[in-house]
Amino acid sequence: MKFSGSPTADFLNGKPKKVTIKLGDSTSIAKSMDLLNKTVEDIKQAMYDEVERICQVGEDEAKAKVHVDTGELRDSITHKVKKTKKKIKGVVSAGTDHAMFQEFGTGLVGEGTYPGDSSGWVYDYKGQEWQGHKSNHFMYDAAKKMEEEMRK
User: Fold this and answer.
1) For residues 146 and 92, is the Cβ–Cβ distance under 8 A?
2) For each of the chain's 152 residues, which pLDDT tens digit applies?
3) Residues 127 and 141 sit within 8 Å (Cβ to Cβ)
4) Are the C-beta atoms of residues 72 and 96 closer than 8 Å to each other?
5) What is the DSSP letter of 14?
6) Phi, psi dihedral angles at 63 (to 5 degrees)
7) Which residues, in sequence order, are CB contacts of 7 under 8 Å at separation 6+?
8) Are residues 94 and 62 in contact, defined by beta-carbon separation less than 8 angstroms?
């Protein structure tokens, strides 16, 4: 990953900046401390930006892989990045009640792809026996894509 657009981009790209401190020179020490603090803030921002980018990749992947009927499920897929004093946390989520049924499948067709017992499960859907649907695992695919992005 390459960084640009900040005074510490060279540092973040592996080119350390040399700082000279003259002992007894309070201005020299203060400037060095300011530079160090700015560098720490730039690194934190770069980390936040990277988590944001990876979460966007995950959101895009989930939206591309999810089965679309009305679009409600696809439109509910979002991501959020939260920064606290000690950590940066990114989450990609689907906000509908039926997201888990798409992810894990249902009934006999989806057996083994979700937690629960599906033995003997049959549903009468519009006069037809319906035995469920197989899993789509769009969120799993998104998580794997995000993992790939983190390894780059």
Assistant:
1) yes
2) 555 555 555 656 667 667 777 888 888 888 888 888 888 898 899 999 999 999 999 999 999 999 999 999 999 999 999 999 899 999 999 999 999 989 988 877 776 665 556 566 666 777 777 777 888 999 999 999 999 999 88
3) no
4) yes
5) T
6) -65, -35
7) 38, 42
8) yes
Please name the residue ranges forming H helices in 14-137: 26-65, 72-76, 99-104
| Predicted model pTM | 0.75
Single-letter code of the amino acid located at 18: K
Cα end-to-end distance, the chain, whole Å: 7
> What pLDDT, on a 0 to 100 scale, did the predictor assign at position 112?
63
* Residue with the two structure tokens 């003997």: 120
Tell me 20's DSSP state: -
Cα(119)–Cα(13) distance, integer angstroms: 56
Distance CA(67)–CA(110), nearest Å, equals 15
d(CA 104, CA 43): 38
Domain ranges of the chain: 9-151
